[in-house]
Design goal:
alpha+beta, 3 strands, globular, Rham/fucose_mutarotase, Dimeric_a/b-barrel, L-rhamnose mutarotase
């Protein structure tokens, strides 16, 4: 696992099936150790998820988002996780999509 000096920041949006809010949060209460290892090996530095109603907003800091998707495509821990999570999502998380995430519109500049 190599971390370059500046990670990519990627924002993603997914949506839950109605009534799956508690199940989704319960599943995320404990991430399997083998998934944690797979994500870190794929260059993920941090992955945060916020929920507003059924909408999920992900913020990922990763060495290379496309390389991460490729590395996880055949990883047994991630495949198992995706099967479980996709049962709860309104639209499946498609790691094969060409999406680079949400486009940044604005951020508060850092003052020095």
């Amino acid at each position: 696992m190599t971390h370059g000096p500046t990670p990519q920041s990627v924002a993603l949006r997914t949506r839950l099936k109605p009534g799956q809010e508690a199940a989704y949060e319960s599943v995320h209460a404990v991430i399997p150790p083998e998934l944690d290892t797979a994500l870190r090996r794929a260059g993920v530095r941090t992955w945060r998820i916020w929920r507003s109603g059924l909408d999920l907003f992900h913020f990922v800091e990763v060495d290379d988002f496309d390389a991460m998707k490729a590395a996880l495509a055949d990883d047994p821990a991630d495949i198992e996780w995706q099967i479980r999570i996709n049962e709860l999502l309104d639209t499946a998380d498609d790691r094969n999509s060409t999406s680079a995430g949400l486009g940044l519109v604005w951020e508060l500049p850092v003052k020095e």
